[in-house]
Amino acid sequence: MTTQTTPETDERLPAGSKVGIIAGGGMLPVEVAKSLSAKGKAPFILIVEGEVTAHLDELSQFEHETLALERIGNLVTVLQRHGVTHLVMAGEIRRRPKLSAIKINLGLLRVLPELLKALTRGDDGLLRIVIKGFEARGITIVGAQDIVPDILASQMVLTKTGPRKSDWPDIEAAFVAAKTIGRLDIGQAAVAIGSRVIALEGIEGTAGLLDRVKGLRGHGRLAGRQRGVLVKCAKPQQELRVDLPTIGPETIESAHAAGLAGVVVEANRSIVLDSASVIEKADRYGMFVLGLRREELP
Amino acid sequence: MTTQTTPETDERLPAGSKVGIIAGGGMLPVEVAKSLSAKGKAPFILIVEGEVTAHLDELSQFEHETLALERIGNLVTVLQRHGVTHLVMAGEIRRRPKLSAIKINLGLLRVLPELLKALTRGDDGLLRIVIKGFEARGITIVGAQDIVPDILASQMVLTKTGPRKSDWPDIEAAFVAAKTIGRLDIGQAAVAIGSRVIALEGIEGTAGLLDRVKGLRGHGRLAGRQRGVLVKCAKPQQELRVDLPTIGPETIESAHAAGLAGVVVEANRSIVLDSASVIEKADRYGMFVLGLRREELP
């Protein structure tokens, strides 16, 4: 725990605000918590049971509670008890609550209609409803990037090497495909090899997608084609405060294992976690990592 | 071999025409060949090396030659030598020729610019270019369904049981998604479970897609949801004479193994192979199979 210093004032986090973090898996909740703590604004962490594994110790150093998804009816009560005024939803939540296991209580009954509606949606639809629910209860949602601005992908080549001319048809095809499935709230990522999209992200997530591409390398339709790219971008209707497309060092590892030449993320609308390690790995593999704005494509 | 009888006249196959079949994998080339033979129009079969395995003996009963994809430059010459005037492309071709293995000859040099252009496209783009090439050389492309009309999916519930009311959100979501990725020439199929699309077809094909869905059944984001549907439909820009979406008995087996409640194909723009067996299997598993027109969806 850091010592409490004079809180910085910030447009998004006024004096007296207290930030809660709903922490899923991965590094992002840790980075947000550390950043807040460094600014003298000790956060409260709501650890989603079963989702946080690798970074549990680090998160447990902050004021925290653990909540099972099935006790979601208690969520607002817990946050209010800890004085939370602003909320960051950070990290991957790989499960959805099982309806049969949800604990019925008064808190739940209040959110039940929204919850049932939300659970039939894709990620984006679900999150919009959840956000509305929080805001109706006086808790303001802020993005992880509002607290740690340098996690946003810049509009530039991050690595020593950039895409070759021959990679651009892959980049364009995968970017269009990823935007399109994003519009349908299905996934955020696509892989193109040899100028055509060969695989699209569904609920398996980006790691699962890259695993599949690795398995498809021997596929006859690829006819031994090399290189290829992963493109990950925000949905056109993306709620920018939650669930931004995210890559990290393990994305580079998996993309390399899948034989891809590079990874493209949408600049200013994607998160690069542990970017030093992302760049170091990509450079080691001779891969490119590129932050691209949609407007840069033809 | 059937005995040659007086050829039936047919708008698409005039007297004196001879049909060639480029035979990929699966039952379709066999059904087309048998149907032609029964009509007294003995076909010539071009067996694509490595693609035809299960039905090689049946196809070899007809006048035939085997050609490796890499000898594609000889294709038109071979067809012309056998007097082919009309051509059916039937069955799945899972490979693409390896550029490095393509045999250079005069025939190839003539088609090379088209071929190189075609190989960077999705299936649909590739086939359009191939068709143009044949037609420029005086060979007319006809659809398998022009020869065996009853393989087209009808606009009806084929099975004893139809979709439940609760299956319709899955059907709608997957239909829209399949059409959308079809427009991008990526794939023809999508799977929805619990009102949302969870997986999209890429180059792995429908069998690979269903295999993946089977593996995703335990995924936390499905939260134990049951049922779900596979929808397979034609691309909006579908060339109707080649590569129509196709299901067969093994599609039902795989969809059942993936825990799906039913399979939907686009009526009049999809092929149901061995429909007796498709229906028998689906009925045994309590699944529905539905031919649906796009206009029936809201």
From TrEMBL, chains A, B:
- List residues of the LpxI C-terminal domain: 157-289
Q: Which Gene3D superfamilies match?
A: 3.40.140.80, 3.40.50.20
Q: Which domain of life is it from?
A: Bacteria
Report the residue ranges that make up the LpxI N-terminal domain in this protein: 18-151
List the Pfam families hit by this protein, alphabetically.
LpxI_C, LpxI_N
**Originating organism:** Oryzicola mucosus
Protein name according to UniProt: UDP-2,3-diacylglucosamine diphosphatase LpxI
Q: What is its EC number?
A: 3.6.1.54
In terms of InterPro entries, this protein maps to: LpxI, LpxI_C, LpxI_C_sf, LpxI_N
Q: Which UniProt keywords apply?
A: Hydrolase
Q: Name one GO molecular function term.
A: hydrolase activity
UniProt keyword Hydrolase, yes or no: yes
